[in-house]
From TrEMBL:
It is an enzyme of class 2 (transferase). GO terms for molecular function: 6-phosphofructokinase activity; diphosphate-fructose-6-phosphate 1-phosphotransferase activity; metal ion binding. This is Pyrophosphate--fructose 6-phosphate 1-phosphotransferase. It comes from Eubacterium ventriosum. The lineage of its organism: Bacteria, Bacillati, Bacillota, Clostridia, Eubacteriales. The active site is at D145.
Length: 412
């Protein structure tokens, strides 16, 4: 019998991360092994700042709390981008965090997030072992980038992929109306991996061929070849739509858009302007109308266009994390492993978090065509099942009615 458990969220928001949180809460309640489920506001920073909330009370007080949580985007507990130091150099944050665990009688800690969050899981678990603390530390994957290793895919990706594909289809309709040559460049998130940009291929149907060109970070970007690709596409399609990852690099490994050296706390380059850069290249070399658009953060919280497959798997992974901790496992990340595409099915598992933290899963080179300007049928077969199904979203005053998150606002 464990006493209480604690859950937190970290990194960028997604449509599905709250569904994983709901899975943890429901799994802990159903297990009857925990007295309370606490939530830490703003990730590990909430622990350091003493900002915890009783989620079991929320379930009792708010009607349909779990169901509303599953279908609300972003992060109900808030987020942070806080990097723990090496405990051998500075153990003060660790001592404080584990003191909080003792104060709140925490026997299991669940951290929902991406690559950097798994680094935090690894560090906390390593410290727990070093000082003999028996707190189970379990990571739950989340990221629209889909770049976590071992797991077949990450919650948040399917819904974001659905948004990207739908948007590219709509852009295809938008650009088709004028009988003139034009180029529309769509810049999509993806610093080191092109999973999200690749999903734009799902916009294609029996009449729509957009996007006509797709460029991912996994293949070196060649400017001369790009100009030729666009020139040939214009001859064939008249109005050309290009999907491009923000993180494309040249043969020397330099970001096309690296006009700024600004980095985040984890040392990741903050990119912007890839679409504008390609727009400039086309304007300088081709006499054609051209514009660029940046989807940016829009797909991260678009719950009105979410995937029921994504939401459901996120919930299952949250529940599975509770089961994993109750089995006595720690320092692991729960995973979704694909069993088949037709009919689509996955099984839940886990892996040592060291197999994930600090690593990046790239789109396989064989899933990109030889010229590097499109993806193959293998990518389509992989991504298609992840965007299927539409949850029922409640509307009020004509817009989606999501769970109240005013507890995250200052001075509230």
């Amino acid at each position: 019998m464990m006493r209480n458990c604690l859950v937190a969220q970290s990194g960028g928001p997604t449509v599905a991360i709250n569904s994983s949180l709901a899975g943890v809460i429901q799994g802990a309640i159903d297990s009857k092994k925990f007295d309370k489920v606490y939530g830490s506001l703003n990730g590990v920073q909430g622990l350091l700042n003493g900002c915890l909330m009783d989620l079991t009370e929320k379930v009792e007080q708010v009607p349909m709390f779990i169901e509303l949580l599953k279908k609300s985007p972003s992060m109900y507990l808030g987020s942070c981008r806080y990097q723990l130091p090496d405990y051998t150099e500075d153990d003060a944050p660790y001592a404080y965090i584990f003191n909080k665990f003792e104060t709140y009688e925490i026997d299991a800690f669940f951290y929902i997030g991406g690559n950097d969050s798994m680094d935090t899981v690894d560090k906390l678990n390593t410290y727990a072992k070093a000082v003999g603390k028996d707190v189970k530390i379990v990571g739950i994957p989340k990221t629209i980038d889909n770049d976590l290793c071992i797991t077949d895919h990450t919650p948040g990706y399917g819904s974001a992929a659905k948004y990207v594909a739908s948007t590219l289809l709509e852009i295809g309709h938008d650009t088709s109306i004028y009988p003139i040559n034009s180029v529309t460049i769509v810049e999509i998130m993806g610093r080191d991996a092109g999973w999200l940009t690749g999903a734009s291929v799902l916009a294609r149907n029996k009449y729509n061929h957009a996007p006509h060109l797709i460029y991912l970070p996994e293949v070196a970007f060649d400017e001369a070849q790009f100009i030729e690709d666009v020139r040939e596409a214009i001859k064939k399609y008249n109005n050309v739509v290009i999907a491009v990852s923000e993180g494309i690099k040249n043969a020397e490994g330099k970001y096309i858009s690296a006009t700024s050296a600004v980095e985040d706390t984890f040392g990741h380059s903050q990119l912007s302007g890839t679409g504008k850069c390609l727009e400039y290249i086309i304007k300088q070399n081709l006499q054609v109308k051209v514009r660029s658009v940046e989807i940016n953060i829009l797909q991260r919280c678009a719950a009105h266009m979410s995937s029921i497959t994504d939401i459901g798997e996120a919930f299952r992974l949250g529940r599975h994390a509770v089961e994993t901790a109750l089995e006595g496992k720690s320092g692991v990340m729960v995973t979704a492993i694909r069993k088949a595409n037709e009919p689509y099915s996955v099984k839940m598992g886990d892996t040592d978090v060291k197999n994930v933290a600090g690593l990046v899963k790239h789109v396989p080179r064989e899933w990109i065509n030889e010229r590097g300007n499109d993806v193959t049928q293998d990518f389509v077969d992989y991504a298609y099942p992840l965007i299927l199904g539409e949850p029922v979203v409640k509307y009020e005053r004509g817009i989606p009615d999501y769970l109240d998150v005013s507890h995250l606002y200052p001075n509230n």
